Here is the input.
Amino acid sequence: MRRWLIGSAAVLCLPIVAVFAPYLWSGGKEKDGAAPASKIAKSRIDRVTVYPSNALVTREIEVPDGEGLVELVVTPMPDRIVASTMYSEGGDGLRVLTTRFTTRQVLEDTSAERRKLEAEMEKFQVAGAKIDSEINGLKMNMDLLNKLEAAADKSTRTGDEVISIAKYVMDQRVEKAKEMVNLMEQKRQNGIQMSFLQRKMGELGRGSGRMERDAILVVDREKGKGGTVRLNYLVSSVSWHPEYKVRAGKVDQDVQVDYLANLMQHTGEDWNQVKMTLSTAQPMLNASPPDLCMLQPILAVRGAPGGPPMPGGGGFASPFANSYAPRDIAKKAMTQRGQAWQLNSGQGGFGGGRGNSFDAKVQKEAERLLNEAAAIEQNLDLMRSRTEVLADLKKGKGSIAGPAGTDGPSVTYHLPNKLTVPSRGDEQVIEVVKLKLAPKYYYKTVPVLNTRVYRLADLVNKSEYILLPGEATMYQGSDFVGRMPMPLVAVGEEFTAGFGVDTQLQVQRQMVDQTRSTQGGNQVIKYEYRILVSSFKNQPVKLQVWDRLPKGENESIGVILGKITPDLCKDGIYLRESRPNNLLRWDVEVPANCSGEKAFAINYEFRMELDRQMAITGFRSK
Here is the structure.
């Protein structure tokens, strides 16, 4: 009996020894390698870099004082996070060992506003189920009335009984019909309320919030004290584009350019008092250029089945079988380039559609598409005739395809003030910078197109900001005058802004004479035109007037400019680019208060010469 008691006591002591043995062997101290305890960490969003279709978010996470390892849980993380892009940065005496992303299911939605809406939605769902049940019961009662009516027809009842049953059935039908109308109206109103709640829930910028997203960091406190570490991650459902408000004042006042950013962020988390940077970069993980493949010609035997035909008359045939439609092939090349770009950006890390992780196979497929697109473009380029090459050079065109380099500049704007941008479905306008630019005002008219005179200003971008292409809203003082597309303007570059129509300047264009004659074997048609400018302003103004002459594509027709008063513009860019196309430009100064007989006049004449056997069937714009 005693041995049995001793044995039992020994067995019972084994678990106690197993639990306390490490503590006893370590002298009462935990081993450093013990698993760290998880703690909910305090964090805030410190800065955000917004790209055209995504954003890089940086959170500062507080690390509590203490020694050794600590596991910090950052919750909640946004719905639109790209989990594979999370990375952490340590601090002074703090080293981040691991960073991981996890999800967990929760009973109720994590958003208080959404929980309130869901509670209201649940009430309407219960009410809807009750209404449906009452409608079904009412239908069964109406079916019972129909059976009662059928039984009255077949029974051998007295006349009074039949009348009594008929009256009961009719009264009940009227009553049930009213009840049905009332229930259907209740159902309709209930559906309207549910639809309204669904739209409000959609405006919250997140889907079902019954899944919590957490980031877990294991931090080693090497110096035995706390501090802060940084957690960086990318989110999708973010975009921005530039827009402008341009205000012109008096002649001696600067033009004010309000550079704005139209920002939409629908990530599921609010950005409160953050340092914001706007960027036009399109970052991708595949930082190396694509590999170039060999270009191989495809040959076919002339006269063979399915091959090109033999040249007729024994003449010299072109080495190319031109059985292609250039537009269709160029479109195919553009499509393949677009597919390659989507593959690269999709795996590139900023919210793409291929799992948001780098894949070597995807990169190889993108390189294959790029090489095939380039082969198609070179096919069009190499198979051009000498006539086409010379014509493109004359028009100032380069390659026929013009494949790459259309992404525009990579520009970054660091906004000076901290901003708050809530997560919502609509666009929010934030200010990038206000610019004051010195204008050079003048007016411009193209009477062959319309008789309006427009006020313009040449502006030089003397700021340190590149102005990106976008829509500009133009104001004259406080009056809205129209919109115009803002071009890409580099630092120090000049651009032109339009400020609407000035009705105090009027212009008219008319033909004053036309004669026809023959000269040798040619027919000659001579025209005289006059452009009259009327000014009702109290001071002289600078005016730019444009017109055009016909221009033949070859020597079969000649167009010669004759007498012209005043002389054409001497601007170098105009003489190089526009004058060879027979576009006419005058830079004149219109006197004050000149109208009627005193109107400012521009006169010019030109003649067209063509063979007597030729006839002009019309003119077209090109």
In short: The longest strand covers residues 505-519.
